[in-house]
Amino acid sequence: MTPFPARAAAAARILVAGDIMLDRYWFGEVDRISPEAPVPVVRVARREDRLGGAANVARNIVALGASVGLLGVVGADEAGARVRALAREAGVRDHLVVDAEGMDTTLKMRVLGRQQQLLRVDFEQGPGARALDALDTGLADVLADYDLLVLSDYAKGALSRVEPMIRAARERGIPVLVDPKGHRYPRYRGANLVTPNRSEMQDAVGRWDSEDDLTRRAQALRRELDLEALLITRSEQGMTLYTAEGRRHVDAQAHEVFDVSGAGDTVLATLAVARAAGLDWFDAMTWANRAGGIVVGKLGTSIVTAEELTS
């Protein structure tokens, strides 16, 4: 494996744009069933907030040693203020737009008993037109300060105008990496790399019946969207990369899987840092595969540091 380019990574400047979330965890003990309903009673002992979605991608990029800016929309609420505070604490440059017209910051609240998730409650509402206008302006203002653009799409609305974002970056010669959502893949035309997971790839091209069939479908999609590379993350089956040179595959790292929350964010962040630091797509995929194998052994949305990655 090509060594991880830590020195070059430290000079990389990466902009992450997309759907911002706050992941909130309530940890406690369960020792009885509620007399009101047949559900466990959790006595909360600890609370923790973590950056989620595109913000988790940015946090992982910092952990790998690169400089990062974060562009997205939050609400004028407690969760939005918490996202901004956590981003500053993590060393993420804040380009966030505050939607004061009633948007709620996307919040995923998880209740855990004895390290097992018992309940998740989601609060979310998409950004308004004025916030999206401000997002477009923000991208135009800061894009020239960065070497690479990462688009993290969770279908919460921040990337509803993704096409001009990709065009703006490509016009400046800035590579674009996209973590997609949904089945409307023509939206991502012109990006350098798109990274669907197995389920998302099926949404895009339908079910395949063999590896050869998947290769034909993947290469057809790559050419249709004018991509340099298409990378499918396949959980226990590893990762498969398709470029004009052909198909390359790496098997999954043999780690115990504890929690897959945010694993795609870590993979995307590692791809971005490795690529910005000068590695080719295959070597970037190899390091991203290693990072993904590490992060699934951690609880909740987590990071992988450069030290963990290279040890």
Q: What topology emerges from the helices and strands here?
A:
Elements: H1 6-10, E1 13-18, E2 20-33, E3 40-53, H2 54-63, E4 67-71, E5 73-75, H3 78-90, E6 93-94, E7 97-99, E8 106-113, E9 116-123, H4 129-142, E10 148-152, H5 162-171, E11 176-179, E12 193-194, H6 198-205, H7 211-224, E13 229-233, E14 239-243, E15 246-250, H8 263-276, H9 281-295, H10 306-310
Parallel strand pairs: 1-4, 1-10, 2-8, 4-6, 5-7, 10-11, 11-12, 12-13
Antiparallel strand pairs: 2-3, 8-9, 13-14, 14-15
Helix pairs in contact: 2-8, 8-9
Protein name: D-glycero-beta-D-manno-heptose-7-phosphate kinase
GO molecular function: kinase activity
Keywords: Kinase, Transferase
Give a quick precis of the structure.
This protein has helices at residues 6-10, 54-63, 78-90, 129-142, 162-171, 198-205, 211-224, 263-276, 281-295, 306-310; strands at residues 13-18, 20-33, 40-53, 67-71, 73-75, 93-94, 97-99, 106-113, 116-123, 148-152, 176-179, 193-194, 229-233, 239-243, 246-250. It is α/β, with parallel strands linked by helices and 311 residues long.
Any overview of this molecule?
This protein has 311 residues and is an alpha/beta fold. The chain has one domain (6-303): 3-Layer(aba) Sandwich (UDP-N-acetylmuramoyl-L-alanine:D-glutamate ligase). 35% of the residues lie in helices and 29% in strands. The protein contains 10 helices and 15 strands. The protein has helices at residues 6-10, 54-63, 78-90, 129-142, 162-171, 198-205, 211-224, 263-276, 281-295, 306-310, and strands at residues 13-18, 20-33, 40-53, 67-71, 73-75, 93-94, 97-99, 106-113, 116-123, 148-152, 176-179, 193-194, 229-233, 239-243, 246-250. The protein has a 9-stranded mixed β-sheet with strand order 6-4-1-10-11-12-13-14-15, with helices on both faces. Strand 14 (239-243) and strand 15 (246-250) form a beta hairpin. Helix 2 packs across helix 8 (263-276) and helix 8 (263-276) packs antiparallel against helix 9. The radius of gyration is 19 Å and the shape is globular.
